[in-house]
Amino acid sequence: MPRVSLEHSEARRRQILAGARRCFSANGFHATSMQDLLNEIGLSAGAFYRYFSGKEELIRTIATETLADVTDSLAAHLQQHDAPLPELLASLPTAHIKTLHDDDQARLIVQIWTEAMRDDALSDVVRAGLGRINALLEAELSERRRAGELPADADPAAVARVIMAALQGFIVQRAAFKVDEPELFASGLSMLFRG
Which of 45, 88, 100, 188 sits 20 to 30 Å CA-CA off 57? Predict the structure, then answer.
């Protein structure tokens, strides 16, 4: 039997992840059966299990990749914007971060956060991912404090947490309540830091 190339293996893995994202976004983690996944990706159970041990590993992988994408997108956004802090914050809701603008991604990340309350291994993945995102914001805010854009006694870690909570709230509103008002949200974030 010929060996499968690394490229083929990676393409198959990507196929599984893409199909799982579609299923989970549409139906949720628990309402999506293994048969639903197999039907969506067009593979047998044996083929699936060559790549993932089960739904839990699949969910953790999706969470890891989703949070890494947010981290990378946020890092790129912060590097490209040297505007004053209110304008930088106002730009976040319209930044090229999939979970902020893609309904499927927003639903998926909210499900990941919810599932993390029940799954300790997933909770570890989510905490680590959110920790990296928070660290990016904290580093940016520390620089802004040194530049005088935040009061000298401002705690960048605390401010980063508040910004993070606001962004998470925006995602939840989009995913759960179909509220899609990035301009309003951007204006509100900007006003929080105007002198």
Answer: 100
Question: DSSP 3-state assignment of 1?
Answer: coil
Q: What is the pLDDT of residues 140-173, one digit of tens each?
A: 999 999 999 999 999 999 999 999 999 999 999 9
For the chain, helix, strand, coil in percent to 5 are 75, 0, 25
What is the domain count for the chain? Answer: 2
Q: Are residues 122 and 63 in the same domain?
A: yes
Same domain, 33 and 91: no
DSSP label of 2:
P
**Cβ atoms of 95 and 74 closer than 8 Å:** yes
**CA 48 to CA 41: how far, in whole Å?**
9
**Residues 40 and 86 both lie in one domain:** no
0.70 exceeded by pTM: yes
Nearest to residue 25, comparing CAs of 121, 107, 124, 146? 107
